[in-house]
Structure formats: structure tokens, C-alpha cells
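Hi R.,

As promised on Friday, here is the backbone we talked about, encoded as C-alpha cells. Could you run it through your design pipeline when you get a chance and send me back a sequence?
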């Protein structure tokens, strides 16, 4: 084979890929075939959840306090909204219409604030009568985290990370980082155990570094180890099994599939976009549930777009990842499917993960053994006591023959009950005839 022959197909492939990509972008922009969009995104840059006891940057160091979107985050989310407006300008009306869009957020401050910022970018006020208000108010729906079986990840009904084996394995993983944990305990004044320590310190130090706050040498070293070794290892364990993936994003994927199916059959009452405002764990989990997660932490403001297109009465799904504001848009292909994945095939490929999290659990996960034992003990003892009292009351206070209704009532009951059944049926029948 000559080098020219090897060179040609590669170039040809690249050229056709580029043309296909261009066509996709054009088709999405002209929206001829676009039928429904599902958007899930990670909130923008935020302040840490807390500081450690010896931290020079306590809550006052953060303009809005802990766990809040920062000015950087506000801008990132607004930019995401502008991006969505540009991409879907011929699809979504410029003014907000209740039937076109439904927004759902996790019940956390950064997720809620992020939703408002995205919507401000997506629906700027265009009618000229702003009176100082430069955005259109759009409702954002939410559900208390403990009852959120759509976005809380993992599902609060059942957490396979509570699984004893899983916890053992995570503790084992942390055995390799004993020295790091020891250093952290020494310098931070925290007394938390391994996993909690990793969660706190990875978050706090990362937020401080993002905001150019000066970190001590031990903190810089710890952050580097946490971000580049410990967290990736922990994340890679999170979505290994089908049960884990189902539990992390199954309910959301199922909702997306159900909405796409309804839209494809024209039963969706005009909804064009479902928007979900959430955390990086949700984005990673949704990607994992579609077999598309590459194991890397996702940056702030990362959005996954799951688009349903209709061409010539057939429906296909496109998945896009916008993982950094300046890094453009990446089209993802479900393993085992085309870039334009037929809806039926998309459903078939995700059928093991697109299930509510609770179905991944045995009854013992739903009700941990200890709770089950307590509930059983309480109900048994209550039942037994009630029975005992009833028996005591009836045998002591009531004369034996009074336990049954007098004879004439017994007769009435036995006559009335069988006659009522045909009466209902016949009256319905006559109504229908009229
Ligand atoms: C957008 O909504 C306005 C009413 O707010 C309506 O007059 C207009 O026709 C709509 N545009 C499209 C393209 O549906
Ligand atoms: C513990 O912290 C002190 C300062 O607070 C430092 O001098 C010492 O080297 C640290 N020890 C270890 C084992 O990290
Ligand atoms: C931190 O510093 C970098 C580089 O100077 C800058 O681009 C960035 O905006 C700063 N971040 C914040 C939150 O001020
Ligand atoms: C649309 O579908 C029909 C029947 O399935 C087929 O004959 C026709 O060629 C298709 N048109 C396009 C543009 O794909
Ligand atoms: C975004 O995702 C694409 C595709 O997975 C990847 O090639 C790219 O490096 C990612 N960028 C960032 C900043 O994570």
C-alpha cells in the first residue's frame, strides 16, 4: 500500500467528519428537525461549603458567605444562558412561554442561583418596556432534597454507597493516603475520618485556589494530591456497576426518555425544553448512565444537551457536551449507536440504567436492617398490646351474647348487601342508554 493510499482515506474521513459536524451545527441552528431539548448542567463557580478550623479564609472572606455562587459563577451561568439562546434562537420563543419550558433545580443554593442566571441569559427582556428589569422572570421548580427522587444523586431512598463492601473499599483506597490524611489532621484542626476529610479539604482548598487565595505549601501539596489522585480514584469507583449508575441518574434518564417518547408521539403539549440545574455529580452520573463518562471531573457550568430530532417521521437522539465555556461543544456518540442515534435504539441501549434508583435496591437497602428490626419490634409489641387490651375489655366488660348484633340486624345486613350490587350496575346501564 502506498503512503498516498493511506493518507487519502484518513483525510477523507476527517473531511466528511468535518462536513457532518458542520451539517449538525447548521441543522441544530435552523432547528428544522429539532423536537425536544433536555439540558442538565453543573452550577457555576461557588464558595466552599465550609472552612477548616485553622483556615485563614473563614466565611467573611467570601462576599456572599459559604456555598454560594460567586461573581465568576454568575457570569459563567449567564454565558451558558446566552449560549443556549444562540443555539436555540429559532426553536425557543424569545419571550418566556409556560408551555415551552420547564425548569427544575436541586434544592441547593448554587443550583438555584445558577438556574436564575442561565434564565437571565436565555430570556433577556426584548420588549423595550423594561422599567429597569432587564430579564424575564421564569419559574424554577424544586423539591426538598430528602424527597427529590429525580435529581438527588444518589437517590435518597437507597444509597449503594452505604453498602458495607463499598465503604470498606473506599476506606481501603484511603489507606494508600494515610500520610496525606495525617498531614491534613495535623494542620487543619479537623478530626473527621478519611472520606469526610477528603470531601471537605478537596472542596475548600480548590475553591480558595480558584479565587487566588494564598495557600500554604502543605495545602498546595495536599490539593494537588487530592485533585489529581484521590478524587479521580474515588470518582472512578462511583459508576462502575449498573446498580450504581441507575441509582445515580436512573430516574433522570428515565424521565428524559419518557419525555422524548411523548414528544415523538406528539403528546407533550408543546414543551420544547426541560432544564435541570444541578451539580457535577449529576452531570457525571447522567453521562455514566449513557455510557459516556470518561472519568474526569467536570468543570463548572458543564452542560449536557440531549436533543430529540425528527426527520421524515423518524426520531433520533443527539448528545452534546459543553464542558468549558471557551472550549466549544463536543458531540458524543453512545457506544453501539450512530451519532444520530435512533430513539428506539437509544432506549434499548440504556434500558438497564434508565430506571428509578430505588429499583436498584433490595428491600434491605430501602429499609436498612436495623430500622426494619425496630419497626417490626414496635409494630409487633403494639399489636400484641392492643390485642391483649381488646381481649381484656371484651371478656371483662361485655356480656358474651352482646358481641354479635341482634338477630334482626344480622338479617338486614345479609339481605341488603347482595341486592346493592346489581342496582348500581343497572342504574349505570340506563344512564348510558339515555
Ligand atoms: C412568540 O411569542 C409571541 C407572544 O409572546 C408571539 O406573538 C409570537 O408569534 C411567538 N413567536 C413564535 C415564533 O412562536
Ligand atoms: C504538624 O504541624 C506542625 C505545624 O502546625 C508542623 O511543624 C509539623 O511538621 C507537622 N507534622 C507533620 C507530621 O506533618
Ligand atoms: C485569579 O488569577 C487569574 C490569573 O491572574 C485570573 O485570570 C482570575 O480571574 C483570578 N480569579 C479570580 C476569582 O479573581
Ligand atoms: C422519507 O421516507 C419515505 C418512506 O419511508 C422514503 O420513501 C423517502 O425517501 C424518505 N425521504 C427522505 C428525504 O429521507
Ligand atoms: C471536554 O470534553 C471533551 C470530550 O469528552 C474533551 O475532549 C475535552 O478535553 C474536555 N474539556 C475539558 C476542559 O474538560
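Update: got your reply. Pasting your designed sequence below so it's all in one thread:
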Amino acid at each position: 500500500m502506498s503512503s498516498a493510499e493511506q493518507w487519502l482515506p484518513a483525510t477523507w474521513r476527517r473531511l466528511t467528519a468535518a462536513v457532518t459536524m458542520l451539517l449538525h451545527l447548521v441543522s441544530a441552528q435552523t432547528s428544522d428537525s429539532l423536537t425536544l431539548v433536555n439540558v442538565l448542567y453543573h452550577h457555576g463557580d461557588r464558595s466552599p461549603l465550609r472552612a477548616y478550623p485553622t483556615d485563614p479564609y473563614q466565611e467573611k472572606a467570601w462576599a456572599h458567605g459559604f456555598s454560594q455562587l460567586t461573581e465568576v459563577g454568575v457570569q459563567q451561568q449567564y454565558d451558558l444562558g446566552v449560549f443556549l439562546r444562540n443555539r436555540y434562537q429559532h426553536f425557543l420563543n424569545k419571550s418566556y412561554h409556560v408551555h415551552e419550558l420547564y425548569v427544575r433545580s436541586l434544592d441547593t443554593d448554587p443550583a438555584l442561583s445558577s438556574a436564575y442566571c442561565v434564565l437571565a441569559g436565555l430570556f433577556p427582556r426584548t420588549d423595550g418596556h423594561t422599567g429597569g428589569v432587564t430579564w424575564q422572570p421564569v419559574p424554577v421548580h424544586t423539591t426538598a432534597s430528602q424527597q427529590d427522587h429525580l435529581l438527588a444523586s444518589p437517590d435518597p431512598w437507597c444509597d449503594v454507597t452505604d453498602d458495607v463492601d463499598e465503604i470498606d473499599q473506599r476506606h481501603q483506597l484511603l489507606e494508600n493516603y494515610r500520610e496525606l490524611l495525617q498531614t491534613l489532621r495535623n494542620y487543619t484542626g479537623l478530626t473527621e475520618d478519611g472520606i469526610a476529610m477528603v470531601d471537605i479539604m478537596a472542596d475548600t482548598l480548590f475553591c480558595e485556589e480558584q479565587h487566588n487565595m494564598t495557600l500554604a505549601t502543605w495545602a498546595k501539596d495536599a490539593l494537588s494530591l487530592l485533585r489529581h489522585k484521590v478524587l479521580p480514584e474515588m470518582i472512578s469507583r462511583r459508576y462502575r456497576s449498573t446498580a450504581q449508575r441507575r441509582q445515580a441518574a436512573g430516574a433522570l434518564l428515565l424521565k428524559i426518555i419518557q419525555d422524548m417518547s411523548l414528544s415523538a408521539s406528539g403528546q407533550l403539549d408543546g414543551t420544547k425544553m426541560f432544564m435541570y440545574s444541578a451539580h457535577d455529580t449529576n452531570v457525571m452520573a447522567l453521562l455514566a448512565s449513557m455510557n459516556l463518562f470518561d472519568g474526569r471531573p467536570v468543570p463548572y457550568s458543564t452542560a449536557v444537551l440531549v436533543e430529540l430530532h425528527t426527520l421524515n417521521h423518524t426520531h433520533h437522539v443527539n448528545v452534546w457536551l459543553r464542558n468549558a465555556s471557551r472550549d466549544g461543544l463536543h458531540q458524543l456518540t453512545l457506544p453501539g449507536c450512530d451519532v444520530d442515534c435512533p430513539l428506539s435504539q437509544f432506549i434499548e441501549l440504556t434500558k438497564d440504567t434508565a430506571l428509578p434508583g430505588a429499583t436498584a435496591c433490595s428491600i434491605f437497602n430501602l429499609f436498612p436492617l436495623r430500622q426494619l428490626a425496630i419497626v417490626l419490634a414496635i409494630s409487633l409489641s403494639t399489636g400484641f398490646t392492643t390485642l391483649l387490651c381488646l381481649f381484656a375489655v371484651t371478656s371483662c366488660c361485655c356480656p358474651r351474647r352482646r358481641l354479635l348484633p341482634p338477630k334482626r340486624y344480622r338479617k338486614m345486613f345479609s339481605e341488603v348487601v347482595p341486592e346493592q350490587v346489581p342496582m348500581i350496575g343497572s342504574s349505570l346501564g340506563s344512564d348510558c342508554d339515555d
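One thing I noticed while checking it: Residues 369-397 form the longest helix (29 residues).

Thanks again,
M.
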